[in-house]
Each structure stands twice: as structure tokens, then as C-alpha cells.
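Fold this: ATP-binding cassette domain-containing protein
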Amino acid sequence: MSAPFFEAEGLCWGPRGRPDLLADISLTLNQGEVLAICGANGAGKSSLLRLLYRFHRPRRGHVRLEGTDIWSLPARDVACRIAAVLQEQPTDFALTVRQIVALGRLPHQRGLSAAGSADRDAIAHALARLHLNALAERPFGTLSGGERQRVMVARALAQAPKLLILDEPTNHLDIRHQLELMALLRGLGLTVITTLHDLTLAAEYADRVLLLAGGRVLTEGAPAEVFTEAHIAGAFSVRSRIDLSGQHPRFSFHL
């Protein structure tokens, strides 16, 4: 039987000299699936992502892409395969939008070689997919928060990864751009892992949801299986009502 496209097995991690903040976390993804990681603030969502894109090394457990442990590969090779879009957005870059997006091609370049036609095509495609052509020559620091977020997603797309990891990508975006971005991620054909606060977006656009609570997996599965009143209460300490009358569930929350 072939290995899963992406797999995390028994992950445990914590800061040096402190107990584990994440414990016994496992997940598998098929190629092309979208996984939403949800949970309350402090549940460990961003820390888990840092393990998945090889920023933190797990104390125990393994992260494998196409059957290969990512810590057995050179960092450049991992960067060619996994792209990450983080919550933190630099604002002091003295670079244009086009130059920021071009940074996504660096893992594919060797030595002092100049960008080639494949690099230029990837940059142009990413700018177009995120509707950034009109902003391509603008200094990055002059953009709004939502525009900067779109630029960082475009940089990740220019990287041409096999796996795209995003930490709260809809932050700073208005409603229209939230929906456009999630539809874009859904339609890329890439394997996508993203943290989301908005359970409605997660239910509509994710194939599967992993719900974290206290650094552990509370439950994982299809959105309809995960987003129950009992699970939401366990993860967020709130009561919820779930409206199933439409094509996708809608949530209301109460203390």
C-alpha cells in the first residue's frame, strides 16, 4: 500500500525546558485535499503549523511528504515542496509587489543564476491569480493589510509547492476577498492546510477539519462530523446552534 501524500505521526513539541504544548498529534492528507485546523486561541494551531512546514523540529514523531520525512531533506528541497503563508506580514520591505512575489522563486534557483522564463511565468501567473497586476509596481509597504495578505499568498503560489500551508489567511480581508481567497485555495488542485477562526468558511471550503483543544486533537473528520454542538462546546467552551437548512451549515454561538 502506498504512503499517504502527507502525514504527521505522533507529533509532540514544546519550548526548550518546558512541557509539551502539543501531544500525540497525527493526521493524513490525500493529494488535493483541503484541511482546516480549528480551535480556540492557545489551542496550538500555529505551533502545529510550524511543525508541518519544518520551522520547529518535533520532540517526538514524524512529518512525511510523499513518504519522506521532511527533516531528512535539505531545507531548500523542502522549500521547493512546501510553501507557508504566515500571519505576520512585514511592512518595511523596500520592495515592490512584483519583487515580493519573485521571492517565491528563490528555492528553485541555484547559486547566482538569474531568473529564467519558468520563474517569470510563475510570477506572472501568481500575480494574475491573486488579481495583483494593477499593484505589481507598488511598494509593498504602501498596501493595505488585505492587499499585503494577497501578495504573500501570491508569493507562495509562485513557489510552485506541492503543499500550501496558511495561518489564518483570511485575517485582514473583507468579506468578498475572504470568499475569493477560499474559493481560490479550493480550486488550486494543491494540497492545502490552513488554520481558520471562521467555522462557516471551514465547513464550506475544507474537505476535512482537525479540531484542536489544549494541544491535542479533539476530533478530526469531515466538517459535518467535526462541527457538532458537543465538539464546539469542548473546543471553545460555548454553546452553539447549527443551521443546516442551507447548502452549508451556519453557526451561532452563546455563552
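The chain has a mean pLDDT of 93. Residues 70 and 78 are 7 Å apart (CA to CA).
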